[in-house]
Design a protein that fits this description.
Blueprint: E1 8-11, H1 17-28, E2 32-37, H2 40-52, E3 57-61, H3 67-81, E4 86-89, H4 104-131, E5 135-140, H5 153-173, E6 178-185, H6 191-201, H7 204-212, H8 223-234, E7 245-248
Parallel strand pairs: 1-2, 1-4, 2-3, 4-5, 5-6, 6-7
């Protein structure tokens, strides 16, 4: 028996990295999973992985910055599964650079995906979760939503917004039986991390080793580390947990 048998989940940005790991882990523990993203080829590959393992899932093409797309995704989800119990707002992008050299359009793009996407997902999940008697919303923030760092101000500001939005949503949704929590990863070995490693250090392995030095535990994390945290917050094991910050960072914020 799985830890979330009978529950229905929607995971954004599920075609790679943390989103892929989350979708696979939730399906493994019994959830029916709606995978969403803009890379349909990669998303359907994850869909096949779930089906091959005996899980139940669908793929939903979703631009998290579009309110129309969110309405359509929720309608498809309700038509297919009849309910929504778990929403994982994972989709996000990053960029780096000095504040004075950051273009306004780049700043706005970061906020559009990382903040507006979380807002819209939460907004449109609430009615469907309320109809089903409650649920769990898990928002992916970052250790950089807790502590600052130079040269990545737009991303850091967006993740700090997710952190406090999560707390506001938790307070608003408590009476409906909807729990809302945030997860704060440090450096996790994902395609996004690999791109950053190449940009800053020339190759993946060198960058991975350098990023590992930021963590007292001595190495970067893996997507499964985050997926297991999401699973806990999505399950009834965390029934007394809302408005909380689950930091999974190898000691990054403790140093």
């Amino acid at each position: 028996m799985g830890r979330i048998d009978g529950k229905t989940a929607l995971v954004t940005g599920a075609s790679a990295g943390i989103g892929r790991a989350v979708a696979l882990r939730l399906a493994e523990e019994g959830a029916r999973v709606a995978l969403s993203g803009l890379n349909e080829t990669a998303g359907r590959k994850v869909l096949s992985e779930i089906h091959d393992a005996g899980g139940e899932a669908i793929y939903v093409l979703l631009d998290v910055t579009s309110e129309t797309a969110w309405r359509e995704a929720m309608a498809e989800l309700e038509e297919t599964f009849g309910r929504l119990d778990i929403l994982v707002n994972n989709a996000g992008i990053t960029m780096s650079g000095k504040i004075e050299e950051t273009a306004l359009e780049d700043w706005r793009r970061i906020m559009d995906v990382n903040v507006d996407g979380v807002f819209l997902g939460t907004k449109h999940a609430i009615p469907l979760m309320r109809k089903g008697g409650g649920g769990s919303i898990v928002n992916l923030s970052s250790v950089l939503g807790i502590t600052g760092t130079p040269l990545i101000s737009a991303y850091t500001a967006s993740k700090a917004a997710v952190r406090l939005f999560t707390k506001c949503a938790a307070l608003e949704c408590a009476e409906d039986g909807i729990r809302v929590n945030s997860i704060h990863p440090a450096f996790i070995h994902t395609p996004m991390m690999e791109d950053t490693a190449i940009r800053l250090h020339g190759d993946v392995e060198t960058g991975k080793a350098e990023f590992g030095k930021f963590h007292p535990i001595g190495h970067v994390g893996e997507p499964l580390d985050i997926a297991n945290g999401v699973l806990y917050l999505a399950s009834d094991e965390s029934s007394f947990t809302t408005g909380a910050e689950l930091v999974i960072d190898g000691g990054y914020t403790a140093a």
